[in-house]
Design brief:
It is a single chain. By secondary structure, the protein is mainly alpha-helical. It has 3 helices and no strands. It has a domain of 56 residues.
Length: 87
């Protein structure tokens, strides 16, 4: 029974990562000079990513400090990606 629970939680973790990276990619403006805002896309991405990391911590596959570090790296990656697209 424990194995089925681990498989289910791993699937939930992966399913949460898909929208996290999907929301992270900023849209490209079709008009010259129109810039999309960083939020709410990054906020949704961070929520999904943090939820995925919480599932990993619940599965005992990550510790809380590693999950926090990954979340900070994810936020900084999203900010750098946004800055790069809007240049």
């Amino acid at each position: 029974m424990r194995r089925k629970r681990d498989i289910f939680l791993r699937l939930v973790e992966i399913v949460l990562l898909v929208p996290a990276f999907g929301f992270l990619v900023p849209p490209v403006a079709s008009e010259e000079g129109h810039v999309y805002h960083l939020f709410p896309g990054l906020a949704f991405a961070v929520v999904f990513f943090v939820a995925s990391q919480l599932v990993a911590v619940l599965r005992d596959r990550s510790c809380w400090w590693a999950a926090i570090l990954k979340a900070l790296l994810f936020v900084s990656f999203g900010w750098v990606l946004f800055q790069r697209v809007t240049m």
